[in-house]
Inverse folding.
């Protein structure tokens, strides 16, 4: 059952990834993600449904528009494949669970937000703010667990985690406003929901891992002279990467640290 679900996750994730390509391009520009239909940016010809099959269509078209021959960026199939792989990894991690929709949603917005932050150094409210009620509703479903025994403690912990992480980042931006943007603060609350739902270990490790990974990356840029002191880097991707570390490895890392003491 889990193997079949992982395979289905790849398909679902790839389809979602196709939509994320639209989100990543249009949301920073303030455009609708629903209309008009996707079209070639060179010749403006609408993309036919059979040319919009995730990954497969790009391969069959050899990365070029059917109408004008313009090159189609390899980023499109990469996002589709990456989202499919991300959904599969989430399914492998959780197994058959009512929590799957919540964490699939997190994987989807994580990919979109990371790419947008890298592209335009911004975390759009259009994605972050709706994630609060959506994530809360999906995590409530997971806590309700319709086919088993409800467990509301994780949901309460999720709400506290969101408040704590939002407050921590809010203080950080007041103390050092050049270090991050308010979009990072708002994203922190969303990540706090998920990390708190999993556990306090996940919350602490996820918060610390974001700064550790971002710091290591920044040092690497300095050593390779690809950045100077004071150069800013998008922090959203490192917050998301740190959250992933906290969710998956939080309890193990916490146990290891306690063992050292």
């Amino acid at each position: 059952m889990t193997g079949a679900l992982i395979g289905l996750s790849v398909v679902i994730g790839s389809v979602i990834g196709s939509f994320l390509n639209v989100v990543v391009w249009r949301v920073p520009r303030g455009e609708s993600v629903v209309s008009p239909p996707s079209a070639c940016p060179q010749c403006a010809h609408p993309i036919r449904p059979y040319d919009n099959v995730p990954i497969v269509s790009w391969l069959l078209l050899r990365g070029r528009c059917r109408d004008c021959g313009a090159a189609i960026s390899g980023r499109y199939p990469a996002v589709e494949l990456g989202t499919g792989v991300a959904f599969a990894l989430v399914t492998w991690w959780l197994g058959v669970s009512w929590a799957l929709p919540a964490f699939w949603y997190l994987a989807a917005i994580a990919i979109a937000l990371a790419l947008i932050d890298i592209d335009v150094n911004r975390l759009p409210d259009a994605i972050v703010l709706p994630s609060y009620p959506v994530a809360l509703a999906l995590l409530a479903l997971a806590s309700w667990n319709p086919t088993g025994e409800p467990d509301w403690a994780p949901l309460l912990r999720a709400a506290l985690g969101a408040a704590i992480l939002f407050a921590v980042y809010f203080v950080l931006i007041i103390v050092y406003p050049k270090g991050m943007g308010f979009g990072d603060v708002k994203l922190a609350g969303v990540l706090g929901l998920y990390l708190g739902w999993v556990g306090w270990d996940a919350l602490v490790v996820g918060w610390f891992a974001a700064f550790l990974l971002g710091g290591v990356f920044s040092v690497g840029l300095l050593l390779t002279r690809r950045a100077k002191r004071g150069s800013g880097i998008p922090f959203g991707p490192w917050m998301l990467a740190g959250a992933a570390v906290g969710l998956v490895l939080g309890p193990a890392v916490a146990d290891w640290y306690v063992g050292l003491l």
